[in-house]
């Protein structure tokens, strides 16, 4: 992005930092988050998840600005961002969360489908 | 305005909208690259960011891919018959006027089989918020021609390409009298969420169309690529024109998609008009249906 | 239990059956009606639309009958007693959402003031040919409850019973009037509100955390939670489990549909209702309902004067059918005579239940008028031979 001029209050702006949390096994690999992350934080991984899709991984963990765009775009409720731990004032978590497990039901979805 | 009474705390290790979803039903049935999940996410976010009483909010869906949305939201959710979400929601709203009723369904359901209900509800400026997810085809049944399919897109029942003129749905409902009309694509997540928030706090017939990718059928039959390719297309070809004349917002095949808030008028809703009119002609004799529904106190 | 005084016009009136039906609904506590104009039923909603704004009810004329029935289903989820009113062609359009109301288990009343069919048929003239449609008109397996009044007074009384049965069994109840009963004017006596028995909606006492929308009680009827009370339940027209979640499997279908049907079948003996007269020692028993029951009175008197021992069963509740009773009776008599304004619908049911033990003689009339009593007399005399 190119600015016409340098904003006058640039020194006062605090750029937030976020942690991206990926619920790997919920992902269906559509790639929306990777495509539209404004900071290029994400990349599709080589790894397969439980459903056989390639979930995204965080490749530039320090770059996330906690804009939530990945979270808003994700049709699977599989990714979100939270303020990074160092952003205490912005309500950051005490320690970093990198991955969150899918629910038990999701992990056993094949079995429940067959059983129900 | 009622206070937020039960917005649950979201734990950091939980997806932010998880408390508003039926997590025991996730993963949902929508295909990879489908945009309906995004619309549900935006709607859930809108609910979290606005002061509405979730206990008094009902979501009604018809049949089809988008029709499944009511089943994934942790609200009073009604999955009804094909095309009848709007009249079903009308009954809910009129019998218990304190409810906020949201209809979440697809283009085939609302504008095809339910088209009559859509126009009449808009004509009455009925107190409903209607989210129409437009993927340009009947996806649940295998990509058949929809009343919104642009010409000459291919569908499974128009294998040589569609030659029927499609509906310009925002223009249809606006000309019938809807008081709020907007259109976004599933890429416009923030604007869509803002529209949902606005519409939740308005009265009358509020209509929001969301254009979403159907990767499995519409895109495949027309060789448009994956869901992501359609998102890229929306990125390039959508144009925000707030206040645009709805006559100019028809969607052609792979043409520019005009988005924005087209209509936002403060006009009396169905219930307001009804109350006002009966008060005028009947005076003190008029007994409106109580907000919590008629004859209930006497019964229980 | 008392009815809302404002809804009950206590006293003696001179009403047609349609008005009486509308008054009955209001006396029963009905406060939501959605309808679409169709002869010969329209007077019901004309009455209601005039009176509802004065008693706290909401009437809306929807864009068609599909919408009317859908709106009634939606309204019923708020706990409000709801009704729609129609005639043959509209009844056909309502079938889709009658199925939805059956599947979602919604108490509501569907009034059908029957006219001649098929299709547009005879809009202003009588018929009784929708009786089988009332039973199985919507697709899929289900059982229904249907009542049939023979007079304006009964249109008032029975529509209250229809609302009560709908509440007890959580199911749509068909109120099968006919054009003659709908359009005939007679004395209708409306009792005091405290004399009218009303069954309220049985609301769950469970908390939202422990509530599941489709857990049946001993009568196979689930508890009800109103939309907007914080239960945040899900319901669907798809085959569903106790949580109201769709489950696409033969096992769930088995449980779901079997319970829907058994809910009525197992309680059928409690629901069936008929008037019985002189069936003990009778040779011939007339089985009638609706306006035909009144035409048959004359035929019975004539036949009795001629020395035939004639008994009568007048069905008040048409569905479920008094199967057990007819079965027993068939072993004791020579024949059943079934006059009806169709080409044989209830007659088929009588024939099935009599299981070859007694003959069944249909006296059919294709509609547009009532029977000539002489035709019924002839059938009785023939059957008594």
Give an overview in words.
- The complex is a heterotrimer of chains A (116), B (300) and C (385).
- By secondary structure, chain A is an alpha+beta fold.
- Chain A has four helices and four strands, in the order E-H-E-E-H-E-H-H.
- With 300 residues, chain B is α/β, with parallel strands linked by helices.
- Chain B has two domains: 13-267, Rossmann fold, CATH 3.40.50; 269-300, no CATH class.
- Helices cover 32% and strands 16% of the residues of chain B.
- Chain B contains ten helices and ten strands.
- In chain B, the strands form two sheets. Chain B has an eight-stranded mixed beta sheet, with helices on both faces. In chain B, strands 5-6 form a two-stranded antiparallel ribbon.
- In chain B, strand 7 (180-185), helix 6 and strand 8 form a beta-alpha-beta unit.
- The relative contact order of chain B is 0.13.
- Chain C has 385 residues and is an alpha/beta fold.
- Chain C contains 13 helices and 16 strands.
- Chain C has helices spanning 17-27, 42-55, 65-76, 88-104, 131-136, 152-169, 179-183, 250-265, 268-271, 291-305, 323-330, 346-354, 373-384, and strands at 11-16, 30-35, 58-61, 81-86, 108-116, 122-126, 145-147, 172-178, 185-190, 234-236, 274-277, 284-288, 310-315, 317-319, 335-340, 359-364.
- In chain C, the strands form three sheets. In chain C, strands 2, 3, 4, 5, 6, 7, 8 and 14 form an eight-stranded mixed beta sheet that branches. Chain C has a five-stranded mixed beta sheet with strand order 11-13-12-15-16, sandwiched between helices. A two-stranded antiparallel sheet of chain C has the order 1-9.
